[in-house]
Amino acid sequence: MSLTVQIFTCPKCNRGEFRSLPGPDGKAFCPWCGDGVTGGTAPPPPPAAPAPEPVPATAPALVAETRVVDDGPLRDRIAELTKRCEQAEAELQRELEKKQQIKQVVAVEMKRLEAAAAEARTLALRKEEEHRTALAGLGRLEADLQAERRKVEDLSGVRSLVEGMEKSVRRLEAENVQLREGRDAAVKEAEHLKSDLAKAEAERGELRKKLAAAEARIETLKDASVELSDLKAERRRLEKERAEFQVKAASLQSEVEKRDRRVGELQMLVKTLGERLNDLTRRLRV
Question: Are residues 43 and 55 in the same domain?
Fold first, then answer.
């Protein structure tokens, strides 16, 4: 931040020039309309003060009261508020970046888990369908077996047919064993998929907790944003007070200059009166 007073002209209200300290962005606030103004210029150097004339020994000493305006605490306060605003903005930016990263990670993980859960559900449905198909085939085979057995009982005299049916029965029993084994494997696979789905649901719950924590952090950041807005409003108010203070300082400076000129005139008058008094004294002695 520059500490050099510059001269600004507000193009919005066009009420003349004013002196102000530029902010970190090079802007100064107009004391009439409060608008931010840029393009300040350095003020011209003050004219050199004339050397004071010697005061005669016989003239009384005149002491001019001067007022010293110290704006150091105001500048320190403005600098501290500016630093706090910058720190709050940097902290808010970092927290927003962290929030975006957390959201991205959560979104990617949620998509992956949803895809895995959908795949597990599809596989489980396919296994269940295959199991139902196998059970239906087994039921049909058992019905066929019962029908064939009834036929065997009806055709007890046909031994060859019985032997063929027994072979079919043994084959069907072997297929039944295989189907049962396949059904058991499908049941185990379905249980495994259910456990994986439960794990996925647990991970999803954890991610939801993390998302809730992130949202709580976002609410905290919103409170920080409100505080930052208050600090910015306080900064604008201080800038406006600083501009009014500088206007008052300029007015006091003009009054001091007028008083200095009046003192100079009084000193000239005292000098003239002293010379006349000395002349009268010399005449009286003569």
Answer: no
Distance of alpha carbon 100 from alpha carbon 28, whole angstroms: 35
What is the number of structural domains in the chain?
A: 2
Q: Are residues 144 and 205 in the same domain?
A: yes
Q: Which 3-state string (H, E, C) describes 154-203?
A: HCCCCHHHHHHHHHHHHHHHHHHHHHHHHHHHHHHHHHHHHHHHHHHHHH
Quickly count: other Cβ atoms within 10 Å of residue 55's Cβ: 14
Residue-wise pLDDT for 152-178, tens only, equals 787 777 677 768 877 876 887 787 777
| Contact between 110 and 137 (Cβ < 8 Å) | no
Q: Which two tokens stand for residue 131?
A: 């199991």
Please, what is the angle between helix 159-285 and helix 72-154, to 10°?
Answer: 180
Same domain, 41 and 147: no
55 shares its domain with 161: yes
Tell me how crowded residue 247 is: count the other CB atoms within 10 A of its CB: 15
Same domain, 269 and 145: yes
Contact yes or no for 242/5 (Cβ under 8 A): no
The pLDDT of residue 120 is above 80: yes
The reply to whether 221 and 239 lie within a common domain is yes
| Rg of the chain on CA atoms, in Å | 50
Domain containing 32 equals 1-48
Q: Whose structure tokens read 């004219």?
A: 47
Enter the pTM of the model. Answer: 0.23
- Strand-strand pairing, 6-9 and 17-20: antiparallel
39 and 150: one domain?
Answer: no
